[in-house]
Write a structure and sequence with these properties.
The protein contains 15 helices and 14 strands. The protein is an alpha/beta fold and 401 residues long.
Length: 401
């Protein structure tokens, strides 16, 4: 494999994000293919015993085993790192593999984690159930209150963990403030950036240390594969994360990596157009529902902060109606928008978090997170906005709104 200018940092670091999304991290074989090659192999052969020994010792470049390196996966990792503005990236089998790896690789018994209360259900499960099993203490706070981060710090606090925007409450964290506080106290920030991606928000520019992703979402963008990624400094990726990943194996399949690689080529176009559609649909229903949670609308309590940190508002927002029965009535009346718990797709999708993504948490935990029975979360896709308005209008009327 020939590493082209797509992996030469002296060249690619001067490219703008749209160019990096199409050409960053490109390797080409002797055939000169334009589309990146797909390498479906678990292992590699070597010319001599000395060659393989040198590679395993880290004294020579080259692949050793696909749990450690794969050309297709390596291309994806290079491209994501370039887009994020990070020194390095390691791809993962799924978004939750990325979150689990980003946390467990750097924590041990006796450590303490401060986490946002508003989070994807599985991320809260990590904080509430998995970490404590290993003797790792956790404190959950309201991430929108800057003072709570400071108040929660203990002598053994090692990590701040949060999403911004959060799933499904669309809470916005003050990245500059929280990441600055963490750095001043020697704490590592782990930011789940899946709702925005680097196309709309780059937390590293605000001081974040580690960025974790479900690449299943906007990066793929068409609901095809599971994938995840963790970005950070070269030191963190090589010395902290890689030993964990090498020995536990949450690796992405080369085919999935290739699909996400192709998705990145259109990420910026999709993310911005879906943000545009989302904002227009949000304005259309605002006032017809009791409450809407959309960072692009002035009614959002942290609208100004969201617009400071994000290039656009993203495709996802939530709104609240009068209980589960009315929420389900809206879903059942949809004709165009699909009922689905996925997000980031080019298709518009809607779900009821209390009975899907956060169903296993119980009513008290959902209430604490700000997820009432009447909440609906929508991912706005690339369909014609007028068709989406008509479908939503019909569904709201059917539910008495």
């Amino acid at each position: 494999m020939k590493k082209t200018t797509g992996t030469d940092r002296s060249i690619t670091r001067n490219w703008r994000p749209a160019t990096q999304a199409v050409r960053g991290g490109t390797w080409r074989s002797e055939h000169g293919e334009t589309s990146e090659a797909l390498f479906l192999t678990s292992g590699y052969t070597f010319h001599t015993a000395g060659e393989v020994a040198a590679r395993f010792a880290g004294e020579a470049e080259g692949m050793t085993y696909s749990r450690l390196q794969n050309p297709t996966v390596a291309m994806l990792e290079e491209r994501i790192a370039l887009l994020e503005g990070a020194e390095a990236c390691r791809a993962q089998a799924s978004g939750m593999a990325a979150m689990t790896t980003a946390l467990l690789c750097q924590l041990q018994t006796g450590d303490h984690v401060v986490a946002a209360r508003a989070a994807f259900g599985s991320c809260r499960w990590l904080v509430d159930n998995l970490l404590p099993k290993f003797g790792i203490e956790t404190t959950v706070i309201d991430s929108a209150v800057n003072e709570e981060w400071d108040a929660a710090i203990r002598p053994n606090t090692k990590v701040f963990f949060f999403e911004s925007p959060a799933n499904p409450t669309l809470d916005i964290v003050d990245l500059e403030c929280v990441c600055g506080l963490a750095k001043s106290r020697g704490i590592t920030t782990v930011v789940d950036n899946a709702f925005a991606t680097a196309a709309l928000q780059r937390p590293i520019e605000f001081g974040a240390d580690v960025i974790a992703y479900s690449a299943t979402k906007l990066m793929d963008g068409q609901g095809r594969v599971l994938a995840g990624a963790v970005c950070g400094s070269q030191e963190f990726i090589d010395e902290v994360l890689l030993p964990f990943q090498r020995n536990t194996g949450p690796n992405i399949a080369p085919f999935n990596a290739w699909v996400v690689h192709k998705g990145l080529e259109t990420l910026s176009l999709r993310a911005h157009k879906q943000s545009e559609n989302s904002l227009e649909l949000g304005k259309f229903i605002e006032g017809r529902v009791p409450r809407i949670l959309h960072p692009g609308l002035e009614s959002h309590p942290r609208h100004a902060l969201a617009m400071k940190q994000m290039d656009a508002c993203g495709p996802i927002f939530s709104f609240i109606v009068d209980g589960r029965e009315q929420a389900h009535a809206i879903l059942d009346a949809l004709e165009l928008i699909d009922i689905s718990n996925n997000i980031g797709d080019a298709r518009s999708l809607m779900c009821h978090p209390a009975s899907t993504t956060h169903a296993n948490m119980g009513p008290e935990a959902r209430e604490e997170m700000g997820i009432p029975e009447g909440m609906l979360r929508i991912n706005v896709g690339l369909e014609d906005i007028e068709d989406l308005k008509e479908d939503m209008d019909r569904a709201l009327k059917a539910a008495g709104l």
